């Protein structure tokens, strides 16, 4: 006998109503810790690509013991990343529970991941953030850092000076000063943390933009950070990633490998995985003067955990 069911679909507007930045920060902190302590599993390989002609999809999955669910984030590659959904399933039965639109959650998770990474790696007295990138994800970064890390000043660098000015004018957070900078050479000096979230195909952030005691976090899908920040004479003292397999396929790490960096050199320079730091298994920053570099491309477990939170907030399961 067949059973007729309807899979609940949660659209972006509903997600925004029930999940906020504090929720995302808490979920990312907990999920990183669970990942480092082997309380969850990611899909292997991290991402599976389905391609056919001009259309295709990328699939990333995770199984989360804490919530009793598994999930798959499905992203159309032919839509520029728009139209992503996270399908959540009950682990015990395998039953599909919900499909959650990933536009808002993806941006929220990415911004929260950067702030959590900074909390793990940056100096505790850090107050000045330079943000490179004024897109939809970048708009959420100041609020995430203000909530998680207590920054008081944000310097914004855009593709054009006008985009940085417009971005700064739209930010309104109590106790946070947001100003536009003409360029990174102007903004980076005196910054405690630099966050880059761009789709740049050529490096826009270089080793000189990472001063002693500073932390550089790359979130973008392009080759935004120059290889010299990892291997040059002024390279970072410590280097972290959240998921090395996925980082090797996209963003700055993928760009370094494509340009000739050997996997052996990459592994030798890797200090630790961020989830191991979150779980207390590996140290992050060990000296106030360390120059710390982190590439945070995002783990599917955070997407699944946030989709599960959305489901529960809406009373779906």
Task: Set down the secondary structure blueprint.
Elements: E1 9-10, H1 12-18, H2 21-36, E2 40-52, E3 55-64, E4 69-76, E5 85-90, E6 96-101, H3 103-121, E7 128-132, H4 141-148, E8 153-157, H5 161-170, E9 177-180, H6 184-187, E10 193-196, E11 215-218, H7 228-231, E12 238-241, H8 244-247, H9 251-258, H10 263-269, E13 272-273, H11 274-278, E14 292-295, H12 300-313
Parallel strand pairs: 1-6, 7-8, 7-10, 8-9, 10-11, 11-14, 12-13, 12-14
Antiparallel strand pairs: 2-3, 3-4, 4-5, 5-6
Helix pairs in contact: 2-3, 2-12, 3-4
Give descriptors for this structure.
8-stranded parallel beta sheet, 6-stranded mixed beta sheet, 317 residues, alpha/beta
> What is the share of helical residues?
25-40%
Order of strands across the main sheet: 9-8-7-10-11-14-12-13
Determine the strand fraction and express it as a percent band: 15-25%
- In terms of structural class, how would the helical and strand content be classed? alpha/beta
Amino- and carboxy-terminal Cα gap: 24 Å
> Number of helical runs?
12
- Global Rg: 19 Å
Largest sheet: 8 strands, parallel
Residue runs with pLDDT of under 50 for 5 or more positions: none
How would you state the average pLDDT, rounded?
94
| Series of secondary-structure elements, N-terminal to C-terminal | EHHEEEEEHEHEHEHEEHEHHHEHEH
- Can you count the beta strands? 14
